[in-house]
Amino acid sequence: MTAYGILGADIGRCCHAIAVLIPMIGAAVPAAAQAPGDAEAGRRLAETWCASCHMVAPGGRGPATDATPDFAAVAAMPSTTAMSLRVFLQTPHSQMPDLHLSRPQTDDLISYILSLRGG
């Protein structure tokens, strides 16, 4: 067998291995890592705009009360999804100021809140 034949077989095996591994790697990535938005930017946004009413980080600053739940408690609710957070943040509420978040800011804030889920 020529060197080219061996090289061709090696390339074929390598391509096959990649084709098998890519779906497995995608399945192993946690859903939070696939969420749109930047969780760190969302944390900074929450500390700037939300911490006057909410506790935005476990053990962080902010007056979490029954009227203003802390972000970790919101993240832990079974009903909390990226979609439910988006709808909530885009719907005016009498007890919450209308912050006029841009779509990227909303994505960042959602990513941050979802990152607070345990497990």
Tell me what you see in this structure.
By secondary structure, this protein is mainly alpha-helical. It folds into 2 domains: 1-30; 35-115, Orthogonal Bundle (Cytochrome Bc1 Complex, Chain D, domain 2), CATH 1.10.760.10. It has helices at residues 3-28, 31-34, 39-49, 71-76, 82-90, 103-115. α3 (39-49) packs across α6 and α5 (82-90) packs across α6. The longest helix has 26 residues, at 3-28. The chain is globular. The relative contact order is 0.16.
Q: What's the helix count? A: 6
User: How would you characterize the largest beta sheet?
Assistant: none
Which range best describes the helical content: under 10%, 10-25%, 25-40%, 40-55%, 55-70% or over 70%? 55-70%
The 3D shape can be described as globular
Element-by-element helix/strand order:
HHHHHH
CATH superfamily of the largest domain: Cytochrome c-like domain
Ends distance: 53 Å
Q: What does the radius of gyration come to?
A: 22 Å
The CATH topology label of the largest domain is Cytochrome Bc1 Complex, Chain D, domain 2
- Mean pLDDT, rounded to whole units? 77
Second rung of CATH, namely the architecture of the largest domain: Orthogonal Bundle
Strand content: under 5%
Number of DSSP strand runs: 0
Q: Into how many domains do the coordinates divide?
A: 2
